[in-house]
């Protein structure tokens, strides 16, 4: 039986799904991958790469890895559309794609569609800094610009005190030291508000203060505007308490937004995430599946990815072979949190929280602080292992 499976997105969930299906599905099945970039981007390392890529260690060149060479070895079973999905018609089972380089539009039909288009962090101020793959596939350029902006600035404000903001502030101060004045602004009273133990955020605050990062909590940035004439700095930031501060550079790390503008509204919840059923299908559909950050489930962390795409592809295989929900695997979402937050390269400047336990900072430095785990990027890009280091 032939079947056309279309996958939108080639990151931590879409790419392993493509590799798995090409390795294990029947030869008659065709896999089409749609993505605006031909590189796998290991954005886990973005807080350090946004400061200086070379300090990621000997594998720093693996920040961006071409993924097509391994996939194209499967011959005519694999097709790649270099562009962005611009529309999905569920009645005709067609995806419209705007091709990169101004090459117009094309379309592809599907028997099963996997939505793995992820999320972005540009909505806070309309600017992209490279913490997620760029919306236009130009992440390498974005990171170059981020590094240049950080290098040129003397006073830097990082708004948002989640893991990315805390890591990025720590990396700037660790690399540049006294050259830069770094201020973290947090809307919450403590840092790392996603962690249900305040002592974890308190430990992060202590480390940042130790390395010279300033911290302002309980307020948020409500407006960014060009600095008035005579005011030092490039921008002025209006805070929720009425204060106005100036800076050479403001980098917002808060807010995450789904890449779902191309999807029919009936597939989405009010915030734009794909509504899901327990089998990893888009709610109310039989052959549309969603995996990764784009789903309506919270806790959008790398630790949840493997459980999602593996259930989806197994159920697709069962569906094509004539099975239904009676044989489908069920996905059980876990909000159990695992978070490792290094703040620079120095031992043991990190905090670790795993399933209710606060662990030693030395563990966080060993797991992530040395290289940001970039040595695990190539096996994912080449379809050897999953993000969770499981063999595909």
From TrEMBL:
GO molecular function: electron-transferring-flavoprotein dehydrogenase activity; flavin adenine dinucleotide binding
Alphabetical keyword list: FAD, Flavoprotein, Oxidoreductase
GO cellular component annotations of the record: cytoplasm
InterPro entries: FAD/NAD-bd_sf, FAD/NAD-binding_dom
Highest taxon of the lineage: Eukaryota
SUPFAM superfamilies, per database record: FAD/NAD(P)-binding domain (SSF51905)
Segments forming domain FAD/NAD(P)-binding: 4-313
Family: Belongs to the FAD-dependent oxidoreductase family.
The name this protein goes by in its record: FAD/NAD(P)-binding domain-containing protein
